[in-house]
Each structure stands twice: as C-alpha cells, then as structure tokens.
Amino acid sequence: MARILLVLILCMPLNAWAAPVRVTLFPASAQVEEATVVTPTPSGEGFSSVLLTLPGQADPATLRFGEPAGQASIADVSWSVRQEPNLSALGPLNARLAELKNSRVAVAAELEGIRGRVAFWKAQTQTTDRTVAGLRELAAELETTLRHDTATVLTLEQRLAEVDRDIARVEEEIARTAGQQRTVWDVRVLLSGSAPKELAYAYTLGDCGWTPLYRLEARPGQNVIEFSWQAKVWQRSGLDWNAVGLHLATMQPDVQAGPADMPPWEIRPRQAFPRAMAAPAMLEMKADSAAAQAPSQPREVRHATYAAWDMGNRSLPAGQTRIFRIADETWAASFVHLLRPSLDSKAFVQASTTFPQPKELPLGTGLFLMDGAVVDQRDFALSGREATLFFGPDPLLTCATTLRDKKTGEKGLLKQKQTFLREWTMTVRNASTHPAQVRVEEPRPLARDERIVLEFKAEPQALEENDAEILAWNSTVPPGAEKAFRVLVRFEAPEDLHVDPGWRW
C-alpha cells in the first residue's frame, strides 16, 4: 500500500520551485533571492499572471521584485496557503537506501567468495592421491585457513543481516514520509504590459540561521592571539540550497565578559534606605542586506551598521547543519596579569589588542585557550578597533592581603571627632620561571560629604585612573619573587555624623 501511495504522489502535478541563487543569512532568519523562467497566463485587458511557490517558513508580505524584463510591470501580488506532499524529505532517504543496497551487494559478493574458498578446501580432503606427508601438510594448512575463513563467514553473515535490517527500517521511513504534508505559499503575481520571460524576487525566510564559533588561543611568549572563526549554518526550508551565493550577516555584538567591575569606594553619611542601582542599557540590534557578488573565498563586506561575510557558492541540503570556515587571523597583543585583591586573590591574564580596521564579530560561542590548554568556554562578541580579552586566572601568580592596622570610633579630646584608620599590604608572588607583568587595582576612597576629612597614602605611589576612582600599580615581578604594595586610609568626621565607611572597609 505504501509503495502504491508513493507512486501516486510522484505522479501528482506540482508547482515548480525556483532555486535560490543568493541567500543572506542572519542569526535566526534569511533573505532569499531567487530568479525563475516564467510562462505568464493571459488574464485579459493587457494583464497576465505568474504563480510562484514559496516555502511555508517564508513571509510573503516581505516579497520584493526586481524590474521585469521588457515593458512589463507588477500590478498586484496576492497569496494563499496550501498543503502539498513533502517530497523533498524523500531525497536523503532514497540516497541512504541506495547506499545501503550497494553495501549489501558488496557484502554478499565477499561472502559468496569466502564460501566458495571454504568449499574448495573441503573438497581437497576427499582426494586419495596424496602421500602421508602431503596429507599432514594439507591438514595443517586447512586448519589455519578454514578457521580464519569460517570466522570471516560468520562476521559477513552478521554484517549482511544488519544491512538487511537497516534497509527495512529506511523503507518503512520512506513509506511513512511519502504520506506527509508540508505547508507552502502560492503567490500570484499580476503583470501589466508585455509578459516577461524571467522574474527575480526576494523574501524573508524563517527556520534558518547561523551561529558563530570562535577559537582564541593566547600565546603570551609570542605576544599574539591566534584567532579562528567558523560558522554553524542550518536551514529547514524543505528545499536544498545548491551552489547558492551565501552571505553571513553579523549583528551588533554584545560586550565581552571579564573580571567583575570594581565599584567606587564612597564614604558618606548612612542613608535610611538603600540606593537603587541603575538598570543596564538594552542592546539594540540592527541588520540590513548585503549586495555583492559572491567570491570564491570568504570576504568581509562592510556596511554602515553591520558587516557581512561573502562565503562564495555553498550548498546546504534541507534539514542539515554544516560548519563553514570564515577566517583565521593572528592578532598582535600585549599581556598583563590583572589583580583586584579587594575582590579576588587570583591574577587574571589580560590581553589588549588593536585592529587596523573596526571589527564586528557577532555574539557566539568562544573557546579560550592559553598555550594550547583550554581555560574557558563562554559567550564572545567584539565591536570596534580595540579589544581587551581575559584568558582566566594564572595559578602561578597569587596575591595575599594582610591587614596591618584597623581602628574605628576613636574620639579627639577637644574636637570630639570620629577617627577611622585602616592599613593593609598586598603581596603579589610569582611562582613561575619567567618575569610577570602585573597590574594591581584597588578602589580609591572618595569622601561624599564635606564634613568627612580623608587622608590616604600608597607605597609605592599609585596611579589614579577612571576619574580618580581607581588606584593602580604597574610593575614587574621577577620569577620566584614577590612584591608588596601598601595602602593606608584615614578619615575623620564629627562625632554626631553616622558614617558609612563603604564596602572596602
């Protein structure tokens, strides 16, 4: 019954599908460009019509047309939805069935040959014209050969049975798929003037897209980052894309991950209610279409708000996912170990790089490595001409904080003042066999009330950065050595002022 159904379906008249000639993939959609030879149907009074078929995932409202050849112009466009047999799903199944049948022929032929050899050797034992020595020699040879061939026959028989089971499963799936339906759009284009011979058009298609896959390997000894970029591409339109001009459109990327941001150290009067934190700004994403002829190798095409990678002519069967290479690059970079002892004792490997031209790398999955060792896998994106990247903590570089002195609430004898004092030392130790460039950052205390008199000292002297909210030390720690950084903070306030000394206290 299933075979009869399949024959009937194959004999049904179906609308012709136009093959895509160019596809611009976005992360979750695509712009598909097609061109097809048409035979317009006269509709009277100088009008003719053309019937186009689009996948069910297409949005016919996004249709736009190229200028028809000749004197024709598009007067109206209408569409309707219908169901048709899903014959495209049978292509991979039929190919798999043919592969299995060819495999069966090969296994059966090999099995028949081994069986013939076993029969030949067994016939040799029936001969009577051999000497005793010849019989002994034959027996020894038969023992080895027949044992090997018999084992081979059993293996081939098992393989043949497995192939037969696979063939039966695929045939059942073909029969089941033959009765399935899919949704398509019938688009009727009304033309005025002389009928054109070809019609070009484009539309938006869902249920397809691409995801970036990144690999970033830091090599501090060479002051470079080895960067590679691949695209995981997929489409479930129901139609095979054969040798289409493929473009991958990037979107505005998000900011990259790194160590925790250090809030300012503010000393102020206590408030009755906690201060509300500002909500983070939402990321605006923009996209447009690319319009360049596909070259043979991936090439970046710059646009005002995004970039597109021209991948050349590529094929992607319906329902499949493939990975295409986009680019391999080497970025010059400077490396430093970033420490924020007030937040963490670890030293993060930080790389800074500058690009000749702005880069737009959309949000994807990034694999981060340090000299061949995987350190992290996380979301990654990039935008602009500069980038600061983090490759995890270095276990050979640590920082220990020692509290040397802390006093709170002492009062002066005459002026009735509150006194707060805190002194600590940060000791960075380098257990590696090579010098380490380090950057130590601490929050600088900020008095948010004129009644608070603040004093602080740092040894060695620290740089003030980020509007004087950050104290920073840049230094080199020799191998097997350590370096200390000392900070003293002291402030006074009136006795009746309820002081909040801040999170760092």
Structure write-up:
The chain has 4 domains: 23-83 and 181-203; 89-178, Helix Hairpins (Orthogonal Bundle), CATH 1.10.287; 208-270 and 292-390, no CATH class; 394-500, Immunoglobulin-like (Sandwich). It has 505 residues and is of the alpha+beta class. 18% of the residues lie in helices and 52% in strands. Strands 9, 10, 15, 16, 17, 18, 19, 20, 22, 23, 24 and 25 form a 12-stranded mixed sheet that branches. β18 and β19 (417-430) form a beta hairpin. The model is unreliable at 1-15, 252-257 and 272-295 (pLDDT under 50). It starts with a helix and ends in a 5-residue tail after the last strand. The chain has 3 helices and 26 strands.
Helices, by number, come to: 3
**What is the mean predicted local confidence, pLDDT?**
80
Largest sheet: 12 strands, mixed
Question: What is the N-to-C succession of helices and strands?
Answer: HEEEEEEHHEEEEEEEEEEEEEEEEEEEE
| Inertia-based shape | flat
Overall structural domain count:
4
Q: Measured on Cα atoms, how large is the radius of gyration?
A: 37 Å
Give unreliable regions as ranges.
1-15, 252-257, 272-295
